[in-house]
Automatic annotation (TrEMBL):
WD repeats: 322-354, 363-404, 405-446, 447-488, 489-531, 532-573
UniProt keyword annotation of Transcription regulation present: no
Record CDD domains: WD40 (cd00200)
Protein name: Pre-mRNA processing factor 4 (PRP4)-like domain-containing protein
Pfam families: PRP4 (PF08799), WD40 (PF00400)
UniProt keyword annotation of Chloroplast present: no
Positions of region (Disordered): 82-119
Bias kind Acidic residues: ranges: 91-101
UniProtKB keywords: Repeat, WD repeat
Domain of life assignment: Eukaryota
Length: 577
């Protein structure tokens, strides 16, 4: 180790040190024969330096190769290499001298090479200039005032001597063509031609008759005089009815003798005691609709055979048969003020009958089959819902169509009139319930919540509750004051075909379903009160008597079933006796 350390020291030391200490070297060489142990001690302290020398030696060894590459950097002069132009751009020089030559433009050869442009660069520059001109043209065109009326655009194109239309050209394309034409004329300085065309247009417009300028296109369909009279009459009727309803509600609230909870409990007790009282075969084909008269003495049913029948109540004995429809009957309803009844059919017509079975009037106008129908509380108007996505209002006395109302995106299936007569609710296969104001014709509410088609709606006599049921197996109770759903009843295990409030006070709600059951719900908290089971097929429709004492249901099993609570009272009286 000592010998290795000494070798680099001796090589790195300059030769002058050896000359100055020549006497020492000679002395050592002379003494080297005998006093070897005596020379080692002075070498040992000298050996202390090697720990420092190896640390210094690598530092000297690493930079020693670096200077050789640094030295040629200034010497490496590609001075003879002139800057060469490539694609219209000048290459960067590697030295300051090249940069100075490029800036000063020394020599004719250098100057010619600096401004020499290749063919590709020329094509690129022309393309850029063309794009820039097009951009400026578009900016100028965007700042021009171009008429928006297509007829005015055609007139101006004609004034400018251009074709007014091209093959397959649309209104916006024609307007853009006029805009670019005007911008090009403006850029070429042909302002006189533009001004002349503009002056000709102004002169033609001023010469046009004033009648054409006053043309106004209404955004609504103008109604007839009969519709206006009907709306006035409906408004007067609804004001009286709503005043009576509010007066009755205030009396129940303020009169200490009125016990509303006791009345509700009694009505729910009656509904809870409903039992099957009678069952009768209604037709050879499945039954589709039923309705009770306002006095509860007659029942009307309709079937897929297109025949409607009138039955006496409560014995359920056939009184008359109504024949006239050419397709299946879809609904039947009694008038709330008389013994007239109306039927709807898939033959796109509705018909008005008397209780003896005579046809009085036919309502024609729908473009597709009818679904549900309903009488206005005044008994003077009839509403029909159809699969042609509209519902219509008819005058019962004259048979005139007063209103054709669109609004649903799919078929309209059911409708119900408010007990005051001011509103009507419609439901359809678009899973939407709409509330319309008959006095103004406006849609005032669109109730969204059902996820499948809605098949039945019914207003409560309290004036602010609306029930709807559909194919999502749920019955929703909408609060018209809050404009939202207040209760969601998972009512049945299959779709709900019909919903009806008890017509006198609305103390309970009845629902019919394809799960072969009908159910009664409390209107106080909408809890189940009674389940009416007995049909062998899906229940298509139901109706509640005016006094709430019995409910009728019709089914696909062709039977009419009467559910009554009076027989229970008779049995209780007999037990008491």
């Amino acid at each position: 180790m000592d010998a290795e350390d000494e070798v680099p020291v001796s090589t790195s030391e300059p030769s002058t040190l050896v000359d100055d200490n020549s006497t020492v070297v000679n002395a050592i060489g002379a003494v080297n024969l005998q006093p070897v142990p005596a020379v080692i001690p002075p070498v040992v302290p000298m050996v202390i330096l090697p720990p420092v020398v190896p640390a210094i030696a690598p530092r000297l060894a690493v930079p020693t190769p670096i200077p050789p590459p640094l030295a040629p950097l200034p010497v490496r002069p590609p001075v003879l290499r002139p800057p060469v132009a490539q694609n219209g751009e000048m290459q960067e020089s590697d030295s300051d001298s090249d940069l100075e030559e490029m800036v000063s433009g020394r020599g004719a050869a250098g100057s010619t090479q600096e401004y020499e442009i290749s063919e590709e660069s020329r094509i690129v520059r022309e393309r850029q200039e063309k794009a820039l001109q097009e951009l400026l043209m578009k900016r100028r065109a965007a700042a021009l005032a171009v008429p928006t009326n297509d007829m005015a655009v055609r007139v101006r194109l004609r004034r400018l001597g251009e074709p007014i239309t091209l093959f397959g050209e649309r209104e916006m394309e024609r307007r853009d063509r006029l805009r670019m034409l005007m911008a090009r004329l403006d850029a070429e300085g042909q302002l006189e031609k533009l001004m002349k065309a503009h002056e000709d247009e102004e002169a033609a417009a001023s010469a046009a008759p004033a009648e054409e300028e006053d043309i106004q296109y209404p955004f609504y369909t103008e109604g007839s005089k009969a519709l206006l009279d009907a709306r006035v009459e409906i408004a007067k009727y609804s004001l009286v009815k709503s005043a009576l309803r509010l007066h009755r509600a205030r009396r129940k609230r303020d009169d200490p003798d009125e016990d509303v909870d006791a009345e509700v409990d009694w009505a729910l007790k009656q509904a809870g005691s409903l039992a099957l009282d009678c069952s009768e075969i209604g037709d050879d084909r499945p039954l589709f609709g039923c309705s009770l008269s306002h006095d509860g003495k007659m029942l009307a049913t309709c079937s897929l055979s297109g025949i409607a029948k009138i039955w006496s109540m409560p014995q359920v004995q056939k009184v008359s048969t109504l024949k006239g429809h050419t397709e299946r009957a879809t609904d039947v309803v009694f008038s709330p003020t008389s013994n007239y009844l109306a039927t709807a059919s898939a033959d796109k017509t509705a018909r008005l009958w008397n209780s003896e079975g005579s046809l009085l009037r036919t309502f024609e106008g729908h473009l597709d089959r009818l679904a549900r129908i309903a009488f206005h509380p005044s008994g003077k108007y009839l509403g029909t819902a159809s699969f042609d996505k509209t519902w219509r209002l008819w005058n019962v006395e004259s048979g005139e169509e007063l209103l054709l109302q669109e609004g649903h995106s799919r078929s309209v299936y059911g409708l119900s009139f408010h007990h005051d007569g001011s509103l009507v609710a419609t439901c359809g296969l678009d899973a939407l319930v709409r509330v319309w104001d008959l006095r103004t014709g406006r849609s005032i509410l669109a109730l969204e919540g059902h996820v499948k088609p809605v098949l039945g709606v019914s207003f409560s006599p309290n004036g602010y509750h609306l029930a709807s049921g559909g194919e999502d197996n749920t019955c929703r109770i909408w609060d018209l004051r809050k404009r939202r759903s207040s209760y969601i009843i998972p009512a049945h295990s299959n779709l709900i075909s019909q919903v009806k409030f008890e017509p006198q006070e609305g103390y309970f709600l009845a629902t019919a379903s394809y799960d072969m059951t009908a159910k009664v719900w409390s209107s106080r908290d909408f809890k189940p009160v009674k389940t009416l089971s007995g049909h062998e097929a899906k229940i298509m429709s139901l109706d509640v008597a005016a006094d709430g004492q019995f409910i009728t249901t019709v089914s696909y099993d062709r039977t009419i079933k009467l559910w009554s609570s009076k027989n229970i009272e008779k049995e209780e009286k007999m037990d008491m006796d």
